[in-house]
Amino acid sequence: MMSSSSESSVIDLTHPLDPSKVTIYPGDPQLICRPAATIPQDGYSVHSLSIGTHTGTHIDAPSHFIVNGASIDQIPLGALIACPAIVIDLTYKEAGSKIVWDDLAKYSSKMKEGTMLLLYTGWSTHWGTNAYMKYPYLDRNAAEKILAAGVKIVGLDTLSPDEIDGPEGYGVHETILGAGGLIVENLTNLNALLELEEENGTELLTSVVPLSLTGCDGSPVRAFGWKCATV
Ligand SMILES: [Zn+2]
């Protein structure tokens, strides 16, 4: 049986790009979206958009941290479309705690080349508030084990896989991007994806679709997931 293509079966994993409700990484450019032309004045509507490459739900390309690493326009679209996904429930982790390999090991048999690993902490409910800034973050050693299992794309519902201003710096970014992997940050609705994962006889598929920004180190994405019947 083929997967259903009904609209209701697609789960949007993307935060709306709403300047009135967004968490920007400290030091990154502000999100500005305002009318440049309006129908009453001009006969048509156009907005002016100013955005950082790491604003909202977005992908980090290797060139975010790695000199001569691949830029976002160099990532083959096929690597980002309809990837089998694993959602790991980490909602028991506290603010500022570390996600270690022990939290992930029981899923290791599902981690393989081409799968997208999604770490569900529940932090997306804090989006746009101060509480979003202090989140569970990933241990560098766990990141190395994820990569060793063959996973190249790690997604999170937090601002970063690294702690802001933590003693380990940008260790997880450097580890994943240095291996040619990709990081997807600021995902939302992973709870809905987890519910689908728990249904029998289904496989989760996810897509994260960036803009083709020439030479850039990342891009906002539309991220979404759906289930595909396996029987
Ligand atoms: Zn980023």
Automatic annotation (TrEMBL):
MF (Gene Ontology): arylformamidase activity
InterPro entries per record: KFase/CYL, KFase_sf
Domain of life: Eukaryota
Gene Ontology biological process terms in this record: L-tryptophan catabolic process to kynurenine
Family matches, as Gene3D superfamilies: Putative cyclase
PANTHER family given in the database record: CYCLASE-LIKE PROTEIN 2, KYNURENINE FORMAMIDASE
Family: Belongs to the Cyclase 1 superfamily.
Protein name: Cyclase
